[in-house]
Design brief:
The complex is a heterotrimer of chains A (about 130), B (about 220) and C (about 450). Chain A is mostly helical and about 130 residues long. Helices cover about 40% and strands about 5% of the residues of chain A. Chain A has one domain (about 30-125): Alpha-Beta Complex (Cytochrome C3). Chain C folds into 3 domains: about 5-140, no CATH class; about 155-305, Rossmann fold, CATH 3.40.50; about 320-430, no CATH class. Classes of the chains: A mainly alpha (about 130), B mainly alpha (about 220), C mainly alpha (about 450).
């Protein structure tokens, strides 16, 4: 019996960790995830999720993690936890927003509206600060 | 600075492209009207087959006597003008702006290539400036406007290169880069840079005279 | 750096002209000229010249002096560009400089068009500067004298109405000693062609009329020469900037041919006259092409050779070189025909380089030699490049089918002691042709 408990407990721990990921994972996030791109022309944009949101005073996940309704952006739906590249593919079909455009619009668009935050190429696509 | 950047990529960009496009169309149409009104006895000889034949020679490096006799300037001129068009139009950073704000996209040059070509443009601008100041033949002709336009082009590319390499404050350099580029675009119809608009026609006209009246090549 | 202001030459016509000017008068005339006669060409040329300096090597003046102020673009920046910048309100001293540059330091040879990527026609800009100087009454005395002659007599050399037919008949008489059946048919209506020459031929190169008559006689041609004004095909008013007189001279020439109902005009071996008749006069008078068909002697001799009408007893033995006159080469593309004729006549032709359309100017044409003695040294010193080019051929005979070229080339041959002599095609044909009648 005891011999069975240990693997089970380990497995449960793994599952728990897995489930906790969306809530905890961003603490380690230093850059925008670029796995969705086949070729990477620039360094990934520097982005510390929690620090950014704290600084920008963003509490609602939907401020960024929006959903989709009838091919349009749906600001109500909360899609946090779903990788952006699941919906925004690197090469978008006509009428859809490509991953690069989605990122640029999301970051640069907001920064320009808010008149805060980096807006130039080199202020995001740069080596991680040490 | 943020506000200036917003201004540069927003209203000023519209203004620069507007001045460039509308200004260029206006200059071309006004010049055409003037030519028809005042140079009728010369426009009548315009012959596009002869003009095109001559232009092919002049658009070929070392394809005309002037190019052959000035090899240094020829190489610099061709490389310079090719890069001048290629780099801005096919630069990833520029395409991204159109892609983000207007949804237009087209293939880009690899960043490394574009970077190298942009550095080449800066170096050639430096060469042109050097010629202006130290080659007696060029210095004799040089006016402040000549120095201004070549500096404007050089600065546009220099700030672009520096911004790409994240040398200096990126926002300041990028903003400067955009402002220089916009000034350059807006200057095209109204300075010596207007040779971009008129060169094909001035060469085409004289080629027509040489080809259809004088039966001699003009290259 | 030296400029035109550092090398002004005293000329009575220019000095007197400039003394009558004020900045206000210059401004008025300049504005009228720009508004009335200039258009998109001048505007484009002045605005787009990027001052690259590539045209330097085009100009024989620059190549001879290696002084930047002689390069084509510099001629513009020292004259028209200054006038434009000031809206014409300039010190009269500048008009003196403009006149000296445009009349005596540019032959309007158009070689620079082969150097300018933008196709800027510096010769045209210099013509506009000359036109301004003419309108301001500020022209070199010698060329103005020829323009006066054109206006008073319809010929360049003050040849009087009776002197001209007299000279033709004198030459006919002379030639009849050699060719008993020879005629110089005057005013023969309906002839195949009217032969026209420049006024310096009756004045001091009468042997050229003699030779032409001999060639046409041997070839059995149906030709004529007019006895009345309109016979002179030269046109110095074209170069002095006097377009009105230029137009009258050309009209007289075309109308003389029309009155004689000839099939075409054959022009003697002159370059500027060809330019006037073929390219300039017709436009001023509103004709797209010449109202009467016309050919230059080079082309005419070429036709006669093709038709087998010129037979020669032997070829010219000494090697010769060919000078390509701008007005019939860059102005009419006769370089191949010139070579075919020369090769037909001569054993050995040594080409000079550059040649054909790229040939260096003789430095006499464009009215420069006609500005007379005050400017002679300048044009001779300004063509040492041509002297080097001639010397490099190593030959002693120079074929140049143009009067102005002869004048300019003879001057540099003598100055640089090249030991060459110049020949017209007519000289060679006359020397070599079969003369069955000759006694």
């Amino acid at each position: 019996m005891k011999q069975r408990t240990i693997p089970f407990a380990l497995a449960a721990l793994v599952v728990a960790c897995f489930l906790a990921m969306p809530a905890l994972g961003q603490q380690d996030m230093k850059t925008i995830p670029d796995e969705g791109f086949k070729t990477k022309t620039r360094l990934p944009a520097v982005f510390n999720h929690d620090e950014h949101n704290e600084k920008a005073g963003i509490a609602e996940c939907t401020a960024c993690h929006h959903g989709e309704k009838d091919g349009k952006r749906d600001p109500e739906a909360d899609t946090s936890g779903i990788p952006c590249s699941d919906c925004h593919s690197a090469v978008a079909k006509p009428g859809r927003t490509s991953l690069m455009r989605a990122f640029h619009k999301q970051c640069m668009g907001c920064h320009m509206d808010q008149k805060k935050g980096p807006v130039t190429c080199g202020d995001c696509h740069k080596p991680l600060p040490k | 600075m943020h506000a200036l950047y917003d201004l540069a990529v927003g209203p000023l960009a519209w203004l620069a492209f507007g001045v460039f496009i509308i200004g260029s169309i206006y200059r071309l149409l006004a010049m055409r009207a003037l030519a028809l009104k005042k140079d009728g006895a010369f426009m009548t000889y315009i012959s596009w087959p002869h003009a095109i034949k001559s232009l092919v020679h002049w658009f070929t490096p070392f394809g005309a006597l002037g190019w052959k006799e000035n090899p240094g300037v020829t190489i610099a001129t061709f490389v310079f003008h090719i890069c001048l068009f290629l780099v801005p139009i096919f630069l990833m950073g520029h395409i991204v702006l159109f892609d983000t704000f207007r949804g237009w996209s087209w293939p880009a040059l690899p960043d490394g290539v574009a970077d190298a070509l942009a550095i080449v443009v800066v170096l050639i601008c430096a060469y042109f400036l050097w010629r202006r100041l130290s080659v007696p033949e060029v210095r004799f002709l040089t006016t402040p406007q000549d120095v201004f336009v070549v500096s404007l082009v050089g600065l546009t590319f220099l700030t672009g290169v520096l911004a790409y390499h994240r040398i200096g404050d990126n926002l300041v350099l990028t903003t400067l880069h955009i402002l220089c580029g916009e000034a350059m675009l807006a200057a095209i119809p109204f300075t010596r840079l207007s040779h971009m608009l008129f060169a094909v026609f001035s060469r085409g006209y004289i080629a027509s005279e040489f080809g259809s009246v004088r039966f001699a090549k003009d290259w | 750096m030296s400029t035109i202001a550092d090398r002004l030459i005293e000329d009575a016509g220019l000095r007197a002209g400039v003394s009558r000017l004020t900045p206000e008068k210059i401004e008025k005339v300049f504005k009228e000229l720009i508004a009335g006669e200039c258009g998109a060409r001048l505007k484009t040329y002045l605005e787009t010249c990027v001052h690259c300096g590539m045209c330097a090597k085009a100009c024989h003046y620059y190549m001879s002096h290696k002084d930047p102020s002689y390069m084509p673009a510099a001629k513009v920046t020292q004259t028209m560009a200054k006038l434009m910048a000031a809206g014409g309100k300039v010190d009269p001293k500048l008009i003196y400089e403009c006149a000296q540059v445009s009349y005596t330091e540019c032959n309007l040879c158009r070689r620079c068009i082969h150097y300018c990527p933008l196709g800027i026609d510096t010769g045209y800009i210099m013509s506009v500067v000359r036109r301004l100087c003419h309108k301001l009454g500020c022209t070199p005395q010698y060329i103005q004298d020829t323009a006066h002659s054109h206006s008073a007599t319809m010929n360049q050399m003050w040849v009087k109405d009776d002197e001209w037919p007299d000279t033709l008949q004198w030459q006919e008489e002379e030639a009849r000693d050699e060719f008993p059946g020879l005629r110089i048919p005057l005013d023969l209506e309906g002839a195949d062609f009217m032969y026209s020459v420049i006024a310096p031929e009756p004045k001091f190169r009468t042997q050229l009329i003699y030779q032409a008559a001999a060639i046409f006689n041997a070839a059995g041609l149906n030709w004529t020469m007019p006895s009345m004004p309109g016979w002179d095909n030269s046109n110095m008013a074209m170069f002095s900037g006097d377009s009105e007189i230029m137009g009258r001279v050309e009209r007289a020439h075309y109308e003389m041919a029309q009155k004689l109902r000839v099939k075409r005009i054959v022009m003697g071996e002159c370059g500027h006259a060809f330019r006037a008749v073929y390219d300039v006069g017709n436009r001023w008078l509103g004709w797209k092409w010449t109202p009467v068909p016309m050919v230059h002697s080079i082309e005419f001799f070429w036709e006669l050779i093709q038709q087998g009408r010129i037979k020669i007893t032997h070829k010219y033995a000494d090697p010769v070189t060919i000078h390509d006159p701008c007005n019939v080469i860059r102005g009419r593309g006769l370089m191949d025909k010139l070579r075919e004729v020369t090769h037909f006549l001569c054993e050995e032709v040594v080409e000079m380089h550059p040649n054909r359309e790229h040939n260096y100017c003789c430095c006499a044409g464009g009215g420069v030699i006609n500005c007379g003695p005050p400017f002679k040294n300048v044009r001779v010193a300004g063509n040492s490049i041509k002297a080097e080019q001639l010397k490099a051929t190593g030959v002693h005979t120079l074929v140049a089918p143009c009067h102005n070229c002869h004048g300019g080339l003879e001057d540099i041959i003598s100055k640089y002691e090249l030991g060459m002599h110049t020949k017209f095609l007519g000289d060679l044909i006359y020397e070599l042709m079969e003369k069955p009648e000759a006694e």
